[in-house]
Here is the input.
Amino acid sequence: MARPDSSATPAACSPARFALSETAFEIAPLREALLSAQAGAYASFEGWVRDHHGGRAVLGLRYDSYAELASSEGAKIIAEALERFAIVEARCVHRVGELGIGELAVWVGVSAAHRDAAFAACRYIIDETKARVPIWKRERYADGEADWLHPLPPGAGS
Here is the structure.
């Protein structure tokens, strides 16, 4: 796939740099929005629903959010990354609703001239999203119980 010329604006490819999605989404169009002649690097993160947490078997989960605040805070995080790191563009999409084991829950993508900035910004975006964006996770366990888990401070999650 050809890269757009440097006059193309990646933001025009997707209306929001941060988004919530009630359905599964494709990564390819999100990644395409990051392409630029200025970028020599791309880093991404995918978070999937795992089958365990805290020594307990997990059957699935539900993400709920305060959508308006989540979108606003998520956009602030992307804006901060664009200011703090030498990156060209960034995107983040987080699922809400019911998800099964193995489903994609969150995706972050960053393009930059160099890999160090792309990796650092990608890590910043996922860590800040988990800490600050009002998204709550309710895990369903094999023993029939369920627990709500809230956003975690940076570095506390995995």
